Amino acid sequence: DVVLTQTPVAQPVTLGDQASISCRSSQSLVHSNGNTYLEWYLQKPGQSPQLLIYKVSNRFSGVPDRFIGSGSGSDFTLKISRVEPEDLGVYYCFQATHDPYTFGAGTKLELK
Amino acid sequence: EVQLVETGGGLVQPGRSLKLSCVASGFTFNNYWMSWTRQAPGKGLEWVASITNSGGSTYYPDSVKGRFTISRDNAQNTLYLQMNSLRSEDTATYYCTRWSKGWFAYWGQGTLVTVSS
Question: Contact A26/A2 with Cβ under 8 angstroms?
Fold first, then answer.
């Protein structure tokens, strides 16, 4: 199975700062159809997860442009510029290139 | 507005069965693949099952293959997850999700399944 390694496990931030989360895959996430199915989800406290980014860098409907996904192959990053209070929670990367689909273990974005 | 409402969770003994339901609204249900994803208490997320829009094909990870069955009733806009031979490690909140062939676009609020004697 593909293993997604997220770092850091926890990211203490000050509101207004930039935050960066890394997701590294145990193998390339480039699908045979040429797409890279690497997504990012945010789970706010007490809520269901919500989709932020799909196919590496595409923001889902309604997601603010301060969320920026990037990367290729097996190395991906989610950057959040100007962190706001509603951005706090646990971020998960996810891959749907290889069966079975797998999630990273999560990165908790928390206040310093 | 897309809505996914799961029901059917509860306390069940190891080895027994349970069936979850998810009623969908706000979109044309039979146009979309659907999935179930779960989260053990205080833990991360795990994909559990997916089904094509027609219901003709289903997909599972090895952890549930042969024990869980995903199905759908397009006339009733309802997704199901039949869970047999339940184990303590199946204890989790189960989320119904709309699957867009690569990502979970929408999530329900979840239903908690507790497997314990």
Answer: yes
Select from A5, A101, A102, A108 the residue whose CB has the most chain B CBs within 10 Å, as the one to mutate to test that interface: A101
Q: What is the mean pLDDT of each run of 10 residues along chain A (112 residues)?
A: 97 96 98 97 97 97 97 98 96 97 98 94
End-to-end distance of chain B based on CA atoms, in angstroms?
Answer: 40
The Cα A39–Cα A26 span in angstroms is 16
Q: How far is B15 from chain A (nearest CA, A)?
A: 25
Positions of chain B with pLDDT under 50: none
**Is the alpha carbon torsion for B44, B37, A87, B41 positive or negative?**
negative
Q: Which residues contact B76 (CB under 8 A, 6 or more apart)?
A: B23
Strand partners, B114: B11
Torsion angles phi and psi, residue A63, rounded to 5: -80, 130
> What percent of chain B shows pLDDT beyond 70?
100
C-alpha span between B13 and B18 (Å, rounded): 10
**pLDDT value, residue B101:** 79
